[in-house]
Amino acid sequence: MAVATTSCVNNGVSTTTAAGADSVTKDDSATTATIQPSIHFNDTISIAMVGDVMLGSIKPNHIMPPNEGKEIFIDCASLLRDADVTCGNLEGVLADKGETRKRPGPLSFSFMMPTKSVQLLVDAGFDFMGIANNHIFDFWKAGTQSTIQTLRDAGIGVAGTADCETALRDINGVKYGFCAFGHEDYSLKTQDTTTVRRIVTSLRKQCDILIVCFHGGSEGTGARHVPHGKEYFHGMDRGDVRQFTHLCIDCGADIVYGNGPHVPRAMELYNGHLIAYSLGNFATIGMGITAQVGYAPLLVARLDGNGRFVGGKIHSFIQPGRVGPRLDSQNRAAHDIWALTQEDIKDNKLLIAPDGTITLK
What we know:
Layout: E1 3-10, E2 13-18, E3 21-26, E4 45-54, H1 77-82, E5 85-90, E6 93-94, E7 112-113, H2 118-124, E8 128-130, H3 140-153, E9 157-159, E10 166-171, E11 174-181, H4 193-204, E12 209-215, E13 232-233, E14 236-237, H5 241-250, E15 255-259, E16 267-270, E17 273-276, E18 281-284, E19 298-303, E20 309-315, E21 317-318, E22 326-327, H6 332-344, E23 350-352, E24 357-360
Parallel strand pairs: 4-5, 4-18, 5-8, 6-7, 8-9, 11-12, 12-15, 15-17
Antiparallel strand pairs: 1-2, 1-10, 2-3, 4-19, 10-11, 13-14, 16-17, 19-20, 20-24, 21-22, 23-24
């Protein structure tokens, strides 16, 4: 993928790097309730999206993949690289030192990937990573800052905290905007509708295609369905994912994909735009990956010049251990998402074939 420019926007200030030059510009555009994109190109574009990515951890426990992780993406690399743009959620920090802020316990999990692991993401073809999740602050602010800087230095767009609200990349003549929201105070929050509106409407004016990543909803095999209203996990507010995703599209997002429940969830076509409520886990070395928690869907969506969904495919992978996603000949992730979509989405406008191909009704 030929990349001309990478930018990161924080609170209206855009820092752009292009061919070795840096510049800062002030965005003084007014925020509006709804912004409709204009046609920017005639051909369709493809967006590859996956859920949680955690490439092993060196602290507090040392759990790393074999062969330095070089074979994690071996079964799916061509799909990730062939898409026009590829996005995921980084479930942990990229750092080489620091101590976890969490106390030991059965429900205490912290993940520190060594900074050299970023090359695995680069080689796999990732363009954007969301970091608005409940592990980006596992090793305090220093861990968050190390993650942001490591991704930026590698040329991967990063978004999801107040220090890095959005990212912009020019890829093959199309400008992609990316933002991410979670449910923790140290990330941009899905529940903060004022901030969501401000970020999405502002970013809409700066890009051709706007992608939103979010971390929300309860967790585990009991959280496969998308409820109406707020969700809670161990008493914590995990947001109203239907309200949030619809708001993002109303404000100009072209596509919205989620993670957080660690299992796949339904998909919805809302006003012509695709919502993937959860893509579950994708490459989570050292996490529990039994039953649907081990399903690892890779969604490739095709959008037209207006950012509207025209088709796509759920490529089904499964995690058989600490080796990464492996092709699933039974297409279990696609079957599961189709069943959940039929159950959870009223007036569903999508068809998902047994091989994962998505078409419009």
